[in-house]
Amino acid sequence: MSNNGYLQIHDPLKPKGYAVGIDLGTTNSLVASVIQGKPRCLPVDEGDAMLLPSVVNYAKDGGVVVGARARRLAAEHPTDTISSVKRFMGRSPDDPETRKLGHHKFSEGAGRVVRFEVSGGQPVTPIEVSGEILRALKRRAESHFAGKVEQAVITVPAYFDDAQRQATKDAGRLAGLEVLRLLNEPTAAALAYGLDKGSQGTFAVYDLGGGTFDISILKLVDGIFEVKSTGGDSALGGDDFDRAIAQRVLQAMGQGSPSPSLVAEVLAAARKTKEALTDAPEVELMAGGHRQLIRREDFEAWIQPLVQKTGIVCRRAMKDAGVTAAELDGVILVGGATRVPAVRCFVAEVFGREPLGDIDPDQVVALGAAVQADLLTNVNRQDEVLLLDVIPLSLGLETMGGIVEKLIPRNSTIPIAAAQVFTTFKDGQTGLDVHVLQGEREAVEDCRSLARFRLSGIPPMAAGMARVEVRFQVDADGILSVAAKEQSTGITQAITVKPSHGLTDEEVERMLLDSIDHAEEDIQLRQLREQRVEAERVLADATKQLGEHGDLLQDGDQAAIEAAMAQVRELAKGEDSHAIKEAIHALDEVSRPFVERVMDQAIRKVVAGHSVEEY
Amino acid sequence: MKCWNCEKETGGRPFCPACGKISARPPGATHFDVFAMRPGYDVDIPSLERQFRELSLKLHPDRFAQADARERRLSLEQTTALNEAYRTLKDPSRRAFYLLKLHGVDLDREDAGTQQEMPQEFLEEVIELREELEGAMHTKDLTRAQAMAVDVTARQREALHEAADALRALHLEDHREEELVKKASHALGRVRYFTRFLEQVEEFEEEAVV
């Protein structure tokens, strides 16, 4: 047992490594951990950046690149580069959200789950793509700690439904993480704020991320964070602001059906423009040889309908929580899109007060997740704080006439359960169909279909005699499970409910096996990439020396060195990391006499300088 | 109830008094049992809230994240029961429906309406209200619907008062049980209808805003 406050090992026989909090975002992902009592984000990308762009590139050689490098590849390889994958989690291929302006290529006839066509292998599902992001975060956190990371709290939008939560948990499993808890993003943000400030009172958390909008009303009393209500739109975010710009730009360019690479380029330019408009009143957008001046007021007019939509949701959440704006003690801003001045203004107007934003809105969710991971794994902190969260959308069953009967109303504190008794309507009937839905509307077609299953094995009896109790349990992650029991005989039936738009357990298992099979391949790929980077460095260095110290070259030096450089350059394009290493070594050997002369000269200069002044 | 760990008597407590391990939920426990309260309509809400927070701190699955599978399952079961009991008891209307259910009348069952033989006046009231609301929705008259909502909220409150009186009397007297249960179910039948009516107005309001 360590006492440095961040090594979470409780059972000496079962070391669990470090526990982290992960914000798996639409645009960027972060990993944080409590280090010496304080939550901190860890460097995860180039230049020690805390934000890992949630972009995954699948190369022709089967290699996978995640982060800023993948994002740079998007314009050149638009369909092999998956961005904003969170939007597709748990959604069907024909979902309107799936069909928004984008640069991805979908597999045709894919069935229940979205699949992206990428080069270098089979089509990939959003769960696998998210798994790659999580795996990258896990690896980079491990190299930061020089130790294993096996447990994680992963955040999800509060408004995520069962299918989206299940998909996120599956992605965690694929990445080799034990998911301690799925934590709602606004709740995580409140946790990050609450612990810093020791606040009491009622707070609203307004969270506008890249692809999702959430509002939660929380009450903090004696260390308990009780979510009173939550609402949102899991298909509204900063990405839609980019799209609002991009659509106008494509129109102005006269591009009715633009190519995926043009879409990727214009979307990237739109994102930069949006960010720049936070400080500048007007920005010139450049994409595909086209220039267009975008004024902040134009931008604000374009996004106004989207921003207004969040207001309706905020008012309903306050009503559900039984509070008015005046009774709130504070409003917390979360998510990069809350940097947009029009959004800040709007929030101030809806809640009648200036929002708090002293913690970086990009980091606050990951920091809160790290606190929760620490609370769950660190026995010394068990009595400090507790989160009581709610289910965001009502759960119900289809009844006669396509009407949904609500079993568990939205904003019920989780874990929660409900039971419904079904009776047979025909003599000798041995099966019953059950359709589980999530949503607030009355008609089946307006709600999200979570699962359909058949209760079978009911003992044959007269109509109405068999009574089957179906029990729905929603756990602390907001995930549903179902059990059924025939009451007269006591026969219990376990039902596996998998979301209609998710993967089956078998599919997840197979993906897990595949990822283990590929582990060795992964190591080779990593070595290959490392050697390529080394080759680049050595070539740049040699070019510089040749340029600066050409006078020190002797007969034949230059030709030999350049030949060795060409060899390195050529092999770096190939797949053989060993061969690249050999070539780098050969270049070192060939250039050694020259490099030694360069060194000698440098030393002589220093010594000469000294001799004049000091000897 | 015997403790699964030390086999001593738990006395229905959430944790075994002998060994301190989390207990299994006693079969047949009511929402009132969860808070060690006597069943009745009148509930001290601040004390209920305090007890809910104290029990949550001890029982919540977050407290058992690193425990073994059995303790994790028991924590889930007990917390689920705690949340359901709290949700039911803190709300006067849900509490009334639940008390009635303990007296053998479950208005949540699909056949509850026909079972309770609601009086003729109520059916007339329902038809009249429904026609008026449909008219307002048809002409998109939000103001009229909202005025109706104010009126129906008052009727709902009054019906709940009636039910509460009958339920209180049920716990004081024991010779008029059948009559009082009938009175409470008729009153709560009206409450239920008014609640659905108000939900419809709310939906109409939301659609009108969008």
Overall description:
- The complex is a heterodimer of chains A (615) and B (210).
- Chain A is α+β, with helices and mostly antiparallel strands.
- Chain A contains 13 helices and 24 strands.
- Chain A is globular, with a radius of gyration of 29 Å.
- In chain A, 45% of the residues are buried.
- Chain B has 210 residues and is an all-alpha fold.
- Chain B contains eight helices and no strands.
- In chain B, α2 runs antiparallel to α3 (69-90) and α6 packs parallel to α8.
- The longest helix of chain B has 33 residues, at 177-209.
- The A-B interface holds A 10, 180-181, 221-224, 312, 316, 375-377, 379, 382-383, 386-388, 412-417, 473, 475-476 and B 53, 56-57, 60-63, 65-66, 76, 79-80, 83-84, 86-87, 206, 209-210.
Highlighted features:
heterodimer; A: 615 residues; alpha+beta; six-stranded mixed beta sheet; five-stranded mixed beta sheet; 13 helices; 38% helix; 24% strand; globular; disordered N terminus; disordered C terminus; B: 210 residues; mainly alpha; 8 helices; 0% strand; elongated
What's this, in brief?
The complex is a heterodimer of chains A (615) and B (210). Chain A has 13 helices and 24 strands.
Report the sheet with the most strands of chain B, covering strand number, pairing sense and barrel closure.
Answer: none
Compressed to H and E, one letter per element, the order of chain B equals HHHHHHHH
State the end-to-end distance of chain B: 55 Å
Strand content of chain A: 15-25%
Report low-confidence residues of chain B grouped into runs of 5 or more: none
**N-to-C terminal Cα separation of chain A, in Å?**
60 Å
Helix content of chain B: 55-70%
Uncertain segments of chain A? 1-15, 609-615
| Beta strands of chain B, count | 0
- In one word, what is the shape of chain B? elongated
Average pLDDT reading of chain B: 89
**Discrete helix count of chain A:** 13
